[in-house]
Amino acid sequence: MIGNPYDWIIILVVIAVLFFGASKIPELFRSMGRAVGEFKKGRIEAEMELQQMQQQLVQQPTVAQNQDTKVQELEKQIAELQKQLEQLKKSNQNQ
């Protein structure tokens, strides 16, 4: 008998009238509306933060890959400089 959502709404309105009086009901619903608005605003902000965090996580591997590439290039340069140093040492020993 009370399975219908409209029945529950009617019961809640009757209880609200009994406890708060007819003059307090608009104020009560106004407060509920503000609370729902704040909840939605907070949810949207949380979703935005999550999206920003996801974007940062997506960008991090790219930065790491760039750093790996730079490290490899520097290692190659170091190896070339070491070869040149060895050649210079050999040429100095021959003189």
From TrEMBL:
Which GO BP terms sit in this record?
protein transport by the Tat complex
Task: One GO cellular component term, please give it.
Answer: plasma membrane
Protein transport as a keyword of this entry, yes or no, is yes
InterPro entries the record matches: TatA/B/E (IPR003369), TatA/E (IPR006312)
Coiled coil regions, renumbered to chain: 64-94
Report whether ATP-binding shows up as a keyword of the record: no
**Chief location category:** membrane
Query: What stretches pass through the bilayer?
Result: 6-25
What membrane topology was assigned to this protein in its record? Single-pass membrane protein
- State where the protein is found: Cell membrane
Sorted UniProt keywords: Cell membrane, Coiled coil, Membrane, Protein transport, Translocation, Transmembrane, Transmembrane helix, Transport
Q: What is this protein called?
A: Sec-independent protein translocase protein TatA
Q: What species is given as this protein's source?
A: Saccharolobus caldissimus
